[in-house]
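Subject: complex prediction, re-run

Hi both,

The earlier run crashed halfway through, so I resubmitted it with identical inputs.
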Amino acid sequence: MLKLGFRVITVGLVVLFASGIALAQQKFRIGYAVPLTGTFGRDGNLVKDAYAFWADLVNAKGGIEVKGKKYPIELSFIDDKSMAAENAKFTEKLITEDKVDLVLGGFGSDSVFAGSAVAEKYKYPLISGAASSNKLFERGFKYYFSTLGKATEEVRGCVDIIQILSPKPKTAAIIGSDILFTSLACEGYKKYAAQNGIEIVHFELFPITLQDYNSMLLKVKQKNPDILFVGSHLMVAMKTIKGMKEIDFTPRMVTFSYGPTVPDFVKNLGKDAEYVVAASEWAPNLPYRDPLFGTAKQFSENYFKKYARYPDYVEAASAAGAYAMQVAIEKLRMTPPVKEGDRVKLMEELHKQNLMTFYGVVKFGEDGANEAHPPVAVQIQNGKLINVFPKEAAEASPWYPMKPWKER
Amino acid sequence: MLLFLQSLLNGILLGGIYASYSAGFSLIFGVMGVVNIFHGEMVMLGAFLTYWIFTLFHIDPFLTIPFSILSLFIFGYLVQRFVINRVVEAPPMISYILTFGIHLIIAYTALWVWTADFRTVTTSYSGFNANIGGIIVPYARLATFGLALFVVVGLYILLYKSEVGRAIQATAQDKEVARLMGVNINRIYAITFGVGAAITGMAGSLISTYFIVFPQMGLPYTIIAFCVVVLGGMGYIPGALWGGLILGVVQSLTATYLNAGLSGAFTFILLFIMLIVRPAGIVGKGIVE
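This time it finished cleanly. Structure:
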């Protein structure tokens, strides 16, 4: 009797354990390595928030729906400490040790460059919404996708805005930190400035670790450019504005490739942030929508409800990337656990995708870059990011020229 | 010419900033022989104290200085008294490891508490400057320069004109004899560290008004302080001013006339040359052994 009871319990435990495994596999386990500390810690946290926003929204509806059944999303992330090598290491760990079903991109071209090489090796499609250096797309990779355009294209709106300015600026200086994304942004400025007939009076790349900008900016001020184009991340953008004010340098316009769209920029600089123009790939007033997030405006409002701040374009691009992957999964009727064959199909599907999202159309080119995305320029006016270019999507005219510091 | 003068002035003011946060590093090294790797974290703590007092209570950053001084003094005193004093007699490598450990603890605790956000103190007068014959003088940096002078003179008076100063000097010169003369070495060490931390925190408070504040900002400050102190002479307090000025001027002129990227390289070339040619610092009064 005792023996029988023992057998029943054993069988019961085995069944329970097996079903536990089966239950545990009934969700999509998605991992990513992202900078949460170090130079890009603040920016990386935005990406993390964007993925969490997407996953929570999908999970609130029960999960990703495949064949009438819903599979929740389980996100896991590792801090790469803003070091590219660490990103590669942790992406490999997520794939080989944690055996996640799928991966997503982190933040910054250097990190994503390293992480996506690992993803390519293991045939994991990796969509990033926060890296855009051209080199990312020149590797012949099949598994790397980006909802952003290329870095050189991303700043186009910041230069093309010249076409609607009066009096038209004639000269410009370009400065930027010497890391991958920002140096390419500077190349982009140069390319589009030439197309717009702007003379470049100064071009300089400096180390991202440079502590004091005043003496460098002094040299730029001396050359008296009409416009200052800056290849930047958040910290570089903040330091540039502080330095410009300290040495009393007011060109007619200053633009940044990234930074001012992060809420911390306005929060910290207050009135000094006024007039600043920044590259963006998305704005909440654009006429886009999808079934998950709703309209661009609804995405922005719901984001605010969750995080008490409005999203910037990198967050929108990251959420849109995750959504593009979700739609592909649903279309392929893929269920967890995701095997290599599934991932190959997913990669092929993503290349075919032409998807309307709240972020705009997501259509990946042969090289993985989002081909369908128009660059936007925003300006800080009365403490808010206002879409000022292209004219069709503009909320207001650009404030131009920039008011001298002493007259504010 | 105006460009040269402006760049020179920028360099001098930058030198003042460097000196303001390096003097404490020099003091601590001079008295205890400890190369304090968490020095930059004390700058960070001073800057964050000012940031929070300014943000939460809208108190002017300059008025937060006494609070930074007091808080950092207590912090420095306690850390020395209960942690570093235990290894002060050990080989230098032990103190490197210990202070490196403290650097990690402070930086990562700050990161946990305050997150990786970049912050800065922007007051209604932030970035204000005077225009003297075409030369721009930013007030906040001028104030820091004044502070650096005040700190160096103040430390000089403390060390040479006060009872505690004499005890500190005696301890620095020969701790065994000082101990035999009735000086409480552990207390002197703790006071010295407290004073070093206090002036560093004060510099951090001012820095928050023109640089960016974030939990992991510390290490570059430690590196610069190290360079400044080597240039000026390890342990020789007025040397912090000399070292800061040389470094500031060289960096500024390099950034203005050559390339901002080279200013970092020049810093280390200068450091390298000094260590070989004049290891006792520019005025030759630093500690060599």
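Residues 65 and 202 of chain B are 6 Å apart (CA to CA).

- K.
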